[in-house]
Amino acid sequence: MTTAQLDDIFSIGGDLPVHRLGYGAMQLPGPGVWGEPADRDGALRVVRAAVEQGVDFIDTADSYGPFVSEQIIAEALHPYPEGLVVATKAGLTRQGPGIWTPVGRPAYLRQQVELSLRHLRVERIDLIQLHRIDPDVPLADQLGVFAELRDEGKVRHIGVSEVSVEELRAAREIVDVVTVQNLYNLTDRKSQDVLDYATAEGIGFIPWFPIATGDLAAPDSPVADIARELDATPSQVALAWLLQKSPVVLPIPGTKSVDHLTENLGAAALTLSDEDMQRLDALA
Ligand SMILES: NC(=O)c1ccc[n+]([C@@H]2O[C@H](COP(=O)([O-])OP(=O)(O)OC[C@H]3O[C@@H](n4cnc5c(N)ncnc54)[C@H](OP(=O)(O)O)[C@@H]3O)[C@@H](O)[C@H]2O)c1
């Protein structure tokens, strides 16, 4: 077991060192992750606050808005501070609020990476993640175009999202995969085998829905009692549990609120004992 610390670092791809507790930017656009937020200034404020409070790893996607999340990040932070890593994704299309359809044809993926470069206002994307494997397109073609873009200097590292261990192994036969982003939190551990594989292989594991879209942070959270005992909040306990689960875990809690952001980042200073971890493990 590791002990989470504010200065706890993971090096993405071996050359992009980041603090393990990051920020997920999916909550920035409007409802259904669609269109502009009602409070754009508030969205800009929360992104700036994240960096001011020490976050140097932000996760976004072309499809969040679409484009809105990437544009807000660029407006809030460009020119980017030294050492900030912005990861984005391509491979899901949007036809309306809450609608997500995988498209992995290489020409589409290439177009989306070009658009992300433009929207993020960068010359190279730190980490591009295949948002979903498109079952209608050979995986070698989907990851192959990312490898081409990497060779062209437009992408630094490649990751995948929502994959099985078998798919992750297959992806690694095609390209060097430095991160995997799967749904994983205290109450949903279907991806435990993927986390175990990533831990053994030293691949970054980015758990999405780290606080179960807010359920783990609620007053009736299953971790509320343990949080009270530790003089912490439920979201801090849920995030500290993730950080201590494995040294390759990079949680990216999302929020529109500066108060929630500050609360969540407090998780990095919370140390859970072996007994706390066992009690939390038993809550699955
Ligand atoms: N790869 C994928 O397919 C995939 C899918 C989904 C998400 N993601 C990534 O994962 C990130 C995290 O997921 P997520 O943002 O959907 O879920 P999450 O981090 O588990 O939860 C976010 C929700 O919890 C609330 N919340 C956050 N902190 C809170 C606190 N301290 N107290 C009370 N409520 C709190 C937020 O509302 P407020 O705004 O009111 O704080 C928001 O509704 C996303 O931003 C995105 O980058 C990836």
UniProtKB/TrEMBL annotation:
It holds the Pfam family Aldo_ket_red. SUPFAM superfamilies: NAD(P)-linked oxidoreductase (SSF51430). Residues 20-283 form the NADP-dependent oxidoreductase domain. The keyword Oxidoreductase applies. This is Predicted oxidoreductase. GO terms for cellular component: cytoplasm. It comes from Trujillonella endophytica. GO terms for molecular function: oxidoreductase activity. Keywords: Oxidoreductase.
